[in-house]
Amino acid sequence: MFPTQFAWGAGTAAYQIEGGWNKDDKGPSIWDTFCHKGGGHVFEDHSGDIACNSYELWEEDLKCILQLGLTHYRFSLAWSRLLPDGTTNHVNEKGVQYYNKVINDLLASNVLPMVTLYHFDLPQALQDQGGWKTPEIAGIFDSYARFCYETFGDRVKLWITLNEPFVCAKLGYEDGIFAPGEKQPGISAYLVGHNMLRAHARAWHSYHTLYKEKQGGAVSLALNSDWAEPLNPTSSDDIAAVKRYLAFSIDWFTWPVFVTGDYPELMRSCIEVRDKELGYQGSRLPRFSKDEPSILGTADFFSLNYYTSRKVKDEGGRPGCRMRSDQGAVGVVDPTWPVCGVSWHVVVPGHLRRLLNYIKDTCNNPAIYITENGFSQVGPVDLDDVQRCGYYKDAIQEVETAIKTDGVDVRGYFAWSLLDNFEWADGFRVRFGLFHVDFTRPERTRTIYRSGREYASIISKYKTQIKTNN
Asked: According to its UniProt record, which residues of this chain constitute the active site (predicted)?
């Protein structure tokens, strides 16, 4: 049995579904620029120029939400649709009108919005000024956040400031496979992660100082993590490598926000050892200034995005200056685990429970919303997606067990995603939706998968139990 007020949701992100990339005075984002470069940055040079066309077809999305019986819907605001140059110097009223309609329609349908301020799509105008690598970005983001609180906060009670800062930092600035496509190994990722944490903290403090009392909402940031286990459970080296792997992934962001107010000691010590070996003066991992708002405690709940797991082995010393070199560990896929759609995505539902317990034990038992969890499909479209149905059933069962047996304070579960959409570097070839979207048709027809019907059935059963108990 789930808690009475448990949130049953699904999620999307602006660039992945909206389209209308240059309509109604919207400014370009870094993903617009990244995709328009072509040259293989994205699978078959796909882009989110049209995507699901949710900017014009919002009512179709709402029908999908209602068909599922969701209690909550998570979506993101396109920063450059609201503020084309990224600053409040120019407010795009058409963007404001669009998101007002989305929020008002949800509430009129008894669906609560969870709103993400930033889901990978930095305004290009800000990137041109240095983007997340500049210290000034924290203040600019705070100004954007305050604009959103002021504009929508009378109706939005669950806010996510940033989605997956780890992914933004590593894939966007270490590996170069996400926008803005920079490759500065072992340097920029740490700086970007640092500035994103500073931006989040400022936005959290602004909400609690200026809006919390009147609006009564809650603010967090969405953190992603694999679950990790030693490749050889009897190897002390592999066991130690797991600790480093987690320190350089989920702990990178949980320690500053939930644990100590600073980066994991293990992470900093590994980087400093490598700094000395490479002849760096000082540490590549920045330090938080005491003159800025405190990072510790700047989350009213824990927002978790979980998809996959890894077996981790010790790599020892490696040449070069990369995050992987710093941590001296590498995650590999166990061949006995089922691969789901794409090579990076293996599915082991029981590992979600283990990760939930890890968060409970290391982050002082926070209230947790699972804000993304899903199962991908590639190749021919299969509306009778039996494997995905089984995955959701098993994953939700693991969540329930974590609540009932382990005492983990899980408050909600959001499937990723409501719709098949633009899956970043994988374009449209990877499908996570509860509804299939026919991207070959101008009307972008939405058709429910079997997994969508079964998820709706789970939600309906939960609602019936609540009514019976009351």
From this structure: 372
DSSP class per residue in 197-263: HHHHHHHHHHIIIIIHHHH--EEEEEEE--EEEESSTT-HHHHHHHHHHHHTTHHHHHIIIIISSS-
E strand or H helix at 304, and its extent? strand 302-305
> Which amino acid is located at 7 in the chain?
A
Q: What is the pLDDT of residue 390?
A: 96
Supply the DSSP symbol for 395. Answer: H
CA-CA-CA-CA torsion sign (26, 95, 68, 352): positive
Whether 350 contacts 398, CB under 8 Å: yes
Predicted pLDDT of residue 318: 63
Number of residues that make up the chain: 470
Q: Are 29 and 78 in contact (CB under 8 A)?
A: yes
Query: Are the C-beta atoms of 270 and 326 separated by less than 8 Å?
Result: yes
* Residues involved in catalysis: 372
How confident is the chain (470 residues) per 10-residue block, as mean pLDDT? 94 99 98 94 97 98 98 99 98 98 99 99 98 98 99 99 98 97 95 98 98 98 97 97 98 98 97 92 94 97 98 80 90 88 89 98 98 97 97 97 98 98 98 98 98 98 81
Tokens linked to 376 = 């991908």
- CA–CA distance, 445 with 467 (Å, rounded to integer): 34
Sequence-distant (≥ 6) Cβ neighbours of residue 441 within 8 angstroms: none
- Asked if residue 405 lies in contact with residue 2, where contact means CB atoms within 8 angstroms, the answer is no
Measured between alpha carbons, how far is 186 from 179 in angstroms, rounded to an integer? 17
Q: H or E stretch including 388?
A: helix 386-404
Pick the CATH number of 7-224+349-469 from 3.20.20.80, 3.10.129.10, 3.30.70.890, 3.60.140.10: 3.20.20.80
Three-state DSSP class for 266? helix
Task: For 124-176, give the DSSP string.
Answer: HHHHTTTGGGSTTHHHHHHHHHHHHHHHHTTT--EEEEEE-HHHHHIIIIIS-
Reduced to 3 states (helix: H, G, I; strand: E, B; else coil), residue 302 is strand
Angle between helix 137-152 and 93-108 (nearest 10): 50
